[in-house]
């Protein structure tokens, strides 16, 4: 197939493009910024283009001759992400209907089993985009995933940095919700299945084999990193304050962190009977194995770090060789990141 990947330079997109090539597809890799194939190690087999999903003319040109669209665009790093994501989804859906593209795959988010009025702004936006894109063609599928595990994944990096930085970790009582993480390798497999002629349609949940509480996930990350940390209950911890503190304690984009923290009040697990099962069979990657891969230096699989990952998610070569404890190295990295953000042109 000829597959258009919208949001190809993001975390999942940067892993998906070579994955699709390995499986024999032609790939059009689209991003909102000027394409830089050399940054991602893409060769001449990848047709890299610039495409703003809110621009109908750009989207129409991008879908020319493609068989399927994989939509990976999310704007959590902006305060107005809901509005921008809505406009982008509406634009792409309209062009898909006009152009006759048959297959659309959207990487959505797990939706907790609560009234929609109780959903966070982040999940509400994902659900809105999902519904718009599912209405674009009968062969559309929304793959709902929660925490995606892999070096460079925003949700994983936030957990890793918090689990590393603090020797004593306050855990709000409302953060005991369950989560069903999924390795990025399995996300790629789910996209494979969604692109298949007889693949799933509609909204399908994607999760790994393990369901854990958020503090337990932090413990897994710390344990695989060889770190001993003490977690203590924090009965009084407003969501806004926790979001602000987490944003200040990590190098991830501010609006992304606060939006994700807001989503931690509810269980984020797959729905029985609506969960993706690999067509090829074989086991899903467990949470400990996925974390181990993500923490292994120079790991060559999708969970490993890539040079193209955003600077905030990458280590610092100088700090990495200094004889510092893990918490000290993370603190130094955070301080350096803060200084850089204050410098003109940084």
From TrEMBL:
Protein name per its UniProtKB record: NAD-dependent epimerase/dehydratase family protein
Pfam families on file: Epimerase (PF01370)
Source species, domain of life: Bacteria
GO molecular function terms attached to this record: protein-containing complex binding
Domain NAD-dependent epimerase/dehydratase positions: 3-197
InterPro entries, A to Z: ComplexI_NDUFA9_subunit (IPR051207), Epimerase_deHydtase (IPR001509), NAD(P)-bd_dom_sf (IPR036291)
């Amino acid at each position: 197939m000829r597959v258009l990947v919208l949001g190809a330079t993001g975390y999942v997109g940067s892993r998906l493009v070579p994955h699709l090539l390995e499986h024999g597809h032609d790939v059009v890799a689209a991003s909102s910024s000027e394409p830089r194939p050399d940054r991602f190690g893409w060769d001449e087999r990848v047709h890299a283009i610039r495409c703003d999903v809110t621009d109908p003319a750009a989207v129409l040109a991008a879908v020319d001759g493609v068989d399927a669209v994989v939509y990976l665009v999310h704007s959590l790093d902006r305060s107005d992400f809901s509005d921008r994501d809505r406009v982008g989804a509406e634009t792409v859906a309209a062009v898909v209907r006009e152009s006759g593209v048959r297959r659309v795959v959207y990487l959505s988010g797990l939706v907790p089993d609560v009234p929609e009025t109780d959903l966070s702004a982040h999940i509400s936006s994902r659900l809105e985009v999902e519904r718009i894109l599912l209405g674009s063609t009968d062969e559309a599928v929304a793959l709902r995933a929660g925490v995606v595990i892999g070096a460079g994944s925003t949700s994983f990096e936030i957990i890793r940095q918090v689990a590393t930085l603090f020797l004593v970790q306050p855990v709000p009582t409302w953060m005991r919700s369950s989560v069903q993480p999924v390795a990025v390798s399995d996300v790629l497999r789910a996209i494979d299945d969604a692109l298949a002629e007889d693949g799933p349609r509609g909204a399908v949940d994607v999760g790994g084999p393990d369901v854990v509480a958020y503090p337990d996930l932090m413990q897994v990350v710390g344990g695989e990193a060889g770190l001993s940390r003490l977690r203590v209950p924090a009965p009084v911890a407003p969501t806004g304050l926790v979001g602000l503190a987490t944003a200040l304690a990590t190098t991830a984009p501010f609006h992304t962190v606060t939006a994700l923290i807001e989503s931690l009040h509810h269980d984020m697990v797959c729905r029985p009977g609506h969960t993706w099962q690999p067509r090829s069979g074989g086991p899903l990657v467990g949470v400990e194995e996925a974390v181990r891969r993500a923490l292994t230096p120079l790991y060559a699989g999708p969970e490993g770090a890539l040079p193209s990952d955003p600077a905030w998610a990458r280590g610092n070569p100088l700090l990495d060789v200094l004889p510092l404890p893990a918490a000290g190295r993370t603190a130094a990295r955070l301080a350096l990141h803060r200084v850089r953000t204050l410098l003109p042109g940084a």
